[in-house]
Specification:
By secondary structure, the protein is α/β, with parallel strands linked by helices. The chain is built from seven helices and nine strands.
Length: about 220
């Protein structure tokens, strides 16, 4: 069999986006929207997901399924990853904190959307791999190794915070580092039962949480 070319991969990427949009349409009642925003759709189309998975899984990168990336971690199903970013409602120029870099796929998309991005990863090997992958496609993302539940106070406050692991409640440090009128997307719940949730902070500092969809994520690790 011939090796896949960039043209083949672009076809698979387009198919992935079409499947994501199908999921959005089917889940409209739960998620409150029936399609991807145009900026996020463009970013998904332009971000080479196959570069953000282990090399042996490149052919499976655009399937609508989670993929193992090592250390008992996975890269989220494309629909769930895209839904988290859609709920985050990132605008160009916003300061965004990501908790859980993994190999950098969602970081690449947020950077493509124009965010000023800071990402915290507890697994040192992932952090280094993500730096290399993001640099290869000219995305400037600041990444550090550490306990993401503590946020990154040096760069706070953040307009948006994305948490890619589940916690029983929004970590207090992250809530504190969320800017007024800011928004956090995080899976909330136990190991068995979780809800993808949106946490919003009002201009006067009050917070509210809205559950969107049942999900299954690994638990947020503490250093």
């Amino acid at each position: 069999m011939k090796p896949m070319t960039e043209e083949h991969l672009a076809i698979l990427r387009r198919h992935m986006v079409e499947v994501i949009e199908l999921h959005f349409d089917l889940a409209e009642e739960e998620i409150g929207r029936d399609t991807l925003g145009p900026a996020l759709r463009r970013a998904l189309m332009e971000t080479p997901r196959h570069l953000f998975v282990p090399a042996q899984l490149m052919a499976a990168a655009y399937q609508d399924t989670p993929l193992p990336i090592g250390f008992d971690k996975t890269l989220s199903q494309p629909f769930i990853g895209a839904l988290m970013l859609e709920l985050l409602e990132i605008e160009s120029g916003q300061r965004v904190l990501e908790v859980g870099t993994g190999l950098g796929w969602q970081a690449a998309i947020m950077s493509e959307l124009g965010a000023t991005l800071y990402s915290v990863e507890i697994v040192e090997e992932f952090a280094q791999a993500a730096r290399l992958r993001l640099a290869a496609i000219d995305h400037d993302v600041e990444i550090r190794v550490g306990d993401g539940s503590r946020g990154w106070s040096d760069h706070a406050p953040f307009d948006r915070i994305l948490v890619t692991a589940a916690a029983s409640e929004p970590p207090p440090a992250l809530v504190e580092q969320l800017a007024p009128n800011g928004r956090m997307v995080i899976p909330i719940g136990s190991k068995e039962v979780q809800q993808l949730s949106v946490v919003e902070k009002t201009a006067d500092g009050r917070t509210g949480t809205r559950a969107v969809l049942p999900v299954r994520f690994t638990q947020l690790e503490l250093a």
